[in-house]
Write a structure and sequence with these properties.
Layout: H1 3-17, H2 32-54, E1 62-63, E2 71-75, E3 78-87, H3 90-97, H4 105-110, H5 115-135, E4 140-147, H6 154-160, E5 172-179, E6 192-197
Parallel strand pairs: 3-4, 4-5
Antiparallel strand pairs: 1-2, 2-3, 5-6
Length: 207
Protein backbone atom coordinates (compact mmCIF):
# COMPACT_ATOMS: atom_id res chain seq x y z
CA UNK A 1 0.00 0.00 0.00
CA UNK A 2 1.40 3.40 -0.98
CA UNK A 3 1.42 6.56 1.11
CA UNK A 4 -1.36 7.87 -1.13
CA UNK A 5 -3.47 4.80 -0.35
CA UNK A 6 -2.87 5.29 3.38
CA UNK A 7 -3.88 8.95 3.13
CA UNK A 8 -7.03 8.12 1.15
CA UNK A 9 -8.00 5.46 3.68
CA UNK A 10 -7.46 7.89 6.56
CA UNK A 11 -9.59 10.53 4.83
CA UNK A 12 -12.31 7.95 4.23
CA UNK A 13 -12.44 7.07 7.94
CA UNK A 14 -12.50 10.75 8.89
CA UNK A 15 -15.46 11.22 6.57
CA UNK A 16 -17.22 8.16 8.07
CA UNK A 17 -16.65 9.34 11.65
CA UNK A 18 -17.93 12.83 10.85
CA UNK A 19 -21.25 11.71 9.36
CA UNK A 20 -23.11 12.55 12.57
CA UNK A 21 -21.23 15.77 13.38
CA UNK A 22 -18.93 14.02 15.87
CA UNK A 23 -21.77 12.34 17.75
CA UNK A 24 -21.19 8.59 18.07
CA UNK A 25 -18.90 8.60 15.05
CA UNK A 26 -16.78 5.82 16.53
CA UNK A 27 -19.62 3.41 15.68
CA UNK A 28 -19.94 4.45 12.03
CA UNK A 29 -19.01 2.10 9.20
CA UNK A 30 -19.86 1.61 5.54
CA UNK A 31 -19.45 -2.12 4.99
CA UNK A 32 -18.85 -5.43 6.78
CA UNK A 33 -15.06 -5.01 6.65
CA UNK A 34 -15.35 -1.62 8.35
CA UNK A 35 -17.66 -3.13 10.96
CA UNK A 36 -15.12 -5.85 11.77
CA UNK A 37 -12.39 -3.21 12.19
CA UNK A 38 -14.60 -1.18 14.55
CA UNK A 39 -15.47 -4.27 16.60
CA UNK A 40 -11.86 -5.45 16.93
CA UNK A 41 -10.76 -1.94 17.90
CA UNK A 42 -13.46 -1.73 20.58
CA UNK A 43 -12.63 -5.17 21.95
CA UNK A 44 -8.94 -4.21 22.10
CA UNK A 45 -9.74 -1.02 24.01
CA UNK A 46 -11.84 -3.03 26.49
CA UNK A 47 -8.94 -5.46 27.02
CA UNK A 48 -6.49 -2.59 27.52
CA UNK A 49 -8.79 -0.84 29.99
CA UNK A 50 -9.51 -3.99 31.99
CA UNK A 51 -5.80 -4.80 32.07
CA UNK A 52 -4.98 -1.29 33.32
CA UNK A 53 -7.72 -1.28 35.98
CA UNK A 54 -7.49 -4.86 37.25
CA UNK A 55 -4.09 -6.16 36.16
CA UNK A 56 -5.33 -8.88 33.81
CA UNK A 57 -3.49 -10.00 30.71
CA UNK A 58 -5.32 -10.73 27.47
CA UNK A 59 -4.32 -11.99 24.06
CA UNK A 60 -5.09 -10.13 20.87
CA UNK A 61 -8.84 -10.06 20.08
CA UNK A 62 -9.92 -12.05 17.03
CA UNK A 63 -13.00 -11.27 14.98
CA UNK A 64 -15.69 -13.94 14.76
CA UNK A 65 -17.34 -13.99 11.33
CA UNK A 66 -20.09 -16.27 12.65
CA UNK A 67 -21.29 -14.05 15.49
CA UNK A 68 -22.42 -14.03 18.22
CA UNK A 69 -20.05 -13.39 19.87
CA UNK A 70 -18.41 -10.61 17.89
CA UNK A 71 -14.87 -11.42 19.03
CA UNK A 72 -12.79 -13.98 20.88
CA UNK A 73 -9.85 -13.29 23.17
CA UNK A 74 -7.53 -15.58 25.14
CA UNK A 75 -7.48 -15.10 28.90
CA UNK A 76 -5.65 -17.31 31.41
CA UNK A 77 -5.78 -20.38 29.18
CA UNK A 78 -9.41 -19.82 28.23
CA UNK A 79 -11.10 -18.39 25.19
CA UNK A 80 -13.61 -15.70 26.05
CA UNK A 81 -16.41 -14.65 23.76
CA UNK A 82 -16.96 -10.89 23.70
CA UNK A 83 -20.20 -9.40 22.43
CA UNK A 84 -20.33 -5.67 21.72
CA UNK A 85 -23.38 -3.43 21.85
CA UNK A 86 -23.81 0.32 21.50
CA UNK A 87 -25.30 2.63 24.09
CA UNK A 88 -26.23 5.55 21.89
CA UNK A 89 -29.48 7.46 21.48
CA UNK A 90 -30.21 6.75 17.83
CA UNK A 91 -32.84 9.49 17.55
CA UNK A 92 -30.37 12.05 18.85
CA UNK A 93 -27.67 10.79 16.50
CA UNK A 94 -30.10 11.01 13.58
CA UNK A 95 -30.92 14.60 14.51
CA UNK A 96 -27.22 15.44 14.65
CA UNK A 97 -26.71 13.91 11.20
CA UNK A 98 -29.45 16.23 9.94
CA UNK A 99 -27.41 19.29 11.01
CA UNK A 100 -28.95 19.85 14.45
CA UNK A 101 -25.98 20.66 16.66
CA UNK A 102 -25.41 18.48 19.76
CA UNK A 103 -23.48 21.32 21.41
CA UNK A 104 -26.27 23.83 21.91
CA UNK A 105 -30.01 24.31 21.71
CA UNK A 106 -32.72 21.68 22.08
CA UNK A 107 -30.63 18.67 21.07
CA UNK A 108 -28.03 19.59 23.69
CA UNK A 109 -30.78 19.74 26.32
CA UNK A 110 -32.30 16.43 25.22
CA UNK A 111 -28.89 14.70 25.37
CA UNK A 112 -28.31 15.36 29.08
CA UNK A 113 -28.23 12.23 31.25
CA UNK A 114 -29.55 11.29 34.70
CA UNK A 115 -29.04 8.36 37.04
CA UNK A 116 -32.50 6.98 36.26
CA UNK A 117 -32.02 7.25 32.53
CA UNK A 118 -28.63 5.53 32.63
CA UNK A 119 -29.94 2.70 34.81
CA UNK A 120 -32.96 2.13 32.59
CA UNK A 121 -30.81 2.12 29.44
CA UNK A 122 -28.27 -0.37 30.83
CA UNK A 123 -30.92 -2.76 32.14
CA UNK A 124 -32.88 -2.56 28.89
CA UNK A 125 -29.80 -3.46 26.84
CA UNK A 126 -28.88 -6.40 29.07
CA UNK A 127 -32.47 -7.73 29.12
CA UNK A 128 -32.90 -7.38 25.35
CA UNK A 129 -29.57 -9.01 24.55
CA UNK A 130 -30.08 -11.74 27.14
CA UNK A 131 -33.48 -12.61 25.66
CA UNK A 132 -31.88 -12.91 22.22
CA UNK A 133 -29.09 -15.19 23.47
CA UNK A 134 -31.53 -17.33 25.42
CA UNK A 135 -33.65 -17.83 22.33
CA UNK A 136 -30.69 -18.93 20.21
CA UNK A 137 -29.16 -20.92 23.11
CA UNK A 138 -25.94 -18.92 23.24
CA UNK A 139 -23.94 -18.16 26.38
CA UNK A 140 -22.01 -14.88 26.18
CA UNK A 141 -18.92 -14.60 28.38
CA UNK A 142 -18.60 -10.81 28.29
CA UNK A 143 -21.10 -8.22 27.10
CA UNK A 144 -19.33 -4.90 26.50
CA UNK A 145 -21.76 -1.99 26.37
CA UNK A 146 -19.83 0.74 24.60
CA UNK A 147 -21.07 4.31 24.85
CA UNK A 148 -20.03 7.38 22.93
CA UNK A 149 -22.59 9.77 24.37
CA UNK A 150 -21.09 13.27 24.26
CA UNK A 151 -22.58 14.48 27.54
CA UNK A 152 -22.18 11.34 29.64
CA UNK A 153 -18.97 11.47 31.69
CA UNK A 154 -17.07 8.84 33.64
CA UNK A 155 -17.43 10.97 36.77
CA UNK A 156 -21.22 10.85 36.45
CA UNK A 157 -21.22 7.11 35.75
CA UNK A 158 -18.94 6.35 38.69
CA UNK A 159 -21.31 8.24 40.99
CA UNK A 160 -24.58 6.93 39.57
CA UNK A 161 -23.67 3.25 39.39
CA UNK A 162 -23.61 3.14 43.20
CA UNK A 163 -27.39 3.72 43.10
CA UNK A 164 -28.25 1.58 40.07
CA UNK A 165 -29.41 -2.01 40.51
CA UNK A 166 -28.27 -3.95 37.45
CA UNK A 167 -30.45 -6.93 36.57
CA UNK A 168 -28.18 -9.82 35.60
CA UNK A 169 -29.12 -12.28 32.86
CA UNK A 170 -28.28 -15.97 33.01
CA UNK A 171 -27.06 -16.02 29.37
CA UNK A 172 -24.63 -13.14 29.94
CA UNK A 173 -21.88 -14.13 32.36
CA UNK A 174 -20.35 -10.67 32.70
CA UNK A 175 -21.33 -7.16 31.65
CA UNK A 176 -19.16 -4.06 31.40
CA UNK A 177 -19.66 -0.45 30.38
CA UNK A 178 -16.88 0.98 28.22
CA UNK A 179 -16.66 4.70 27.50
CA UNK A 180 -14.64 6.60 24.92
CA UNK A 181 -11.30 8.12 25.85
CA UNK A 182 -11.61 11.14 28.13
CA UNK A 183 -8.77 13.70 28.11
CA UNK A 184 -7.70 15.04 31.48
CA UNK A 185 -8.15 11.81 33.48
CA UNK A 186 -4.40 11.30 33.80
CA UNK A 187 -4.52 7.81 32.25
CA UNK A 188 -4.34 6.65 28.65
CA UNK A 189 -6.93 3.89 28.77
CA UNK A 190 -10.65 4.38 28.30
CA UNK A 191 -13.01 4.49 31.32
CA UNK A 192 -14.46 1.06 32.08
CA UNK A 193 -17.04 -0.01 34.67
CA UNK A 194 -17.97 -3.46 35.88
CA UNK A 195 -21.76 -3.80 35.83
CA UNK A 196 -21.61 -7.38 37.10
CA UNK A 197 -19.04 -10.13 36.80
CA UNK A 198 -19.33 -13.87 37.42
CA UNK A 199 -16.35 -14.64 35.22
CA UNK A 200 -13.34 -12.49 36.10
CA UNK A 201 -14.20 -12.22 39.81
CA UNK A 202 -13.21 -8.57 40.03
CA UNK A 203 -14.39 -6.63 43.05
CA UNK A 204 -13.92 -2.95 42.19
CA UNK A 205 -15.61 -0.71 39.63
CA UNK A 206 -13.36 0.90 37.04
CA UNK A 207 -12.80 4.62 37.21
Amino acid sequence: MTNSDDENDLLRWVRIFNKSKGYGGVFNHENSSDKAIVEISTARDWCNSISAEFGYSFGEPRHNADDPPDCYVDFEGRQLGIELVQLIEQDHKHRASKDETPYAGQLYKDMQWSCDRLGASLCEIIAKKGKKYLKCEVQIDVLVIHTAELWLTSEQVNKWLKDIQIQEHSNITSAYLLMDYEPGRGVRHWPVFRLYDNLLNTTTNGR
